[in-house]
Amino acid sequence: MKNQLNWDDLRYFLHVARTNNLTQSALELKVSQSTIARRISGLEKDIKITLFTRHQTGYFLTDQAKGIFQYALAVEAKIMGFESAVDSVKDDVAGTVKLATAENMAIEVIIPALPKLYQKYPNLRLEIVTSPNTVGFLKHEVDIALRSVRPEQDNLLVRRVGKMSYSLFAHTKYLANFKKPYIKHIDQYQFITWDSVYSHLPSARWLAKHIPNAQSILATTSIATQLASVKAGLGIAVLPNLLTAHDKKLIAIKEDVFADDLWIVSYAELRSSKNIRAVIDFIVQELNEFKLIDSL
């Protein structure tokens, strides 16, 4: 191999290997599809190996490329570490940090406190990705995650930062036809549940274990839609207490059914980044100040 490898070529290769989709990679990397295709073809020419099998359904790694992919991941980790080291010697906190968290955490905890973060670090910007799923780190899409499921990847820094309590909630108009104590009628209630894709989430697992015969009137894919469904009087749902604290018409028919561990996750390569440390410290401070979250 006579030509020196270009990191951008490897970056495009890694992204397409993760997405298996040229269009998606182009959108996320904010370049044209032709640019990515040209850079990948150039990389293949330089190393004299066909990296992808091109198919109508996507781009798929060849057998030879699967081994190269692991080395490319190692190169990516080294470059991330270098960028973190450069950031650590700078005096100011500046740039963009991408945070993944659940929608309810973003709305109730993170976003209301952002003015304080920006006042302290005017050159720092946060990008927030909201999803109930554990996405982000497998594809290197985010820098930090605040989540309720502990990841198992070896290259991540994982820190348990607190707990969030959940209860069984219903709206007063749904409970109008039931007498107290409401918990006595648990077998008669209809439930708002999680779509089967999210059956791994703690609230979904709790409901499956403790009320296995729960009658689902609606399955959704977010806490926000479950909360809206409860407010509409459709049925009962397992919801975080922090979402219901200011609505007197939401009744906990069974309080504190379980507490959800909260984890902050980041890359080991970014441990020295001032930007990452600033955002993590900000998140921990807000969790500790939020009364319905038990700080450690």
From TrEMBL:
Domain HTH lysR-type: 5-62
GO-annotated biological processes: DNA-templated transcription
Coiled coil: none
InterPro entries in the cross-refs: LysR-type_TF_proteobact-type, LysR_HTH_N, LysR_subst-bd, WH-like_DNA-bd_sf, WH_DNA-bd_sf
Protein keywords: DNA-binding, Transcription, Transcription regulation
A Pfam family annotated for this UniProt entry: HTH_1
Entry similarity comment: Belongs to the LysR transcriptional regulatory family.
The protein's name: LysR family transcriptional regulator
Organism: Frischella perrara
